[in-house]
Amino acid sequence: MIDTHCHLDATRFDPDRPAVLERAWAAGLHGIVIPGVGPHDWEPLLEMSRQDARLQVGLGIHPQLLPDMPPEQDDAVLEHLDALLSQGGAAAVGECGLDGPSILGAPLERQVAVLRRHLALARKYGLPVLMHCHRLHPALIDLLKQEELPEAGVLMHSYSGGVELARFYLQKGCHFSFAGPVTWAEARKPLDALRAIPLERLMVETDAPDQAPTPHRGQRSEPGYLPHIIEGMARVRGEPVEVVARQTTENARRFFREAFPPPSR
User: DSSP H helical segments within 95-181, as ranges?
Assistant: First the structure.
């Protein structure tokens, strides 16, 4: 199993990060993708990955971070990102994307311009994209109709949209990752999408420390909870847990270009 989106560098893991990882490996995980959200964490994440190949990283600017960044620094920060990506070591570009609640601090025009630069970097370096989209799917769809998608692919992180949106993203070649909400009793719209998406386009994530699955909802999430999410996905799709676990793992290995070491026998 591979957790395709876990903010393992979050301060909430500072007290017990080694124990969190031990629990993850004991739960059967083979790898974790840690998405960078801004320039402050890019180099520490690359170092974390150098220390353990089971930890792969994405480098990007999260749209929720843009309100805290002066717009006049966008070019310089993106040039720094370009330079780091050119050195290798990253398995993806992102987390990046569009965020509706952030528009007050980062207007849509700026968010779109920054996302375009991320897509260009992904094309330049042959890397997949970890895509965040919250309450701005129409704007993202407009952008993806204009932009050439990276050949390495786009992963719709913690997908929460409905079936019709999913059909557009499927047609564009996107993959989808689902997190803890698939186990929540009130979940509806994303579950309809989960049933409609082909298994070969699916991956799984915890988005830890957020979005903990049942029975840990309301607590800090962690990568060791990934089996609960896979069980929830299998239940919704009416498929064996082992089949969903095996296929989502294969999908992740292929999507991230075999970046993870094979599991030890």
Answer: 108-125, 137-146, 163-171
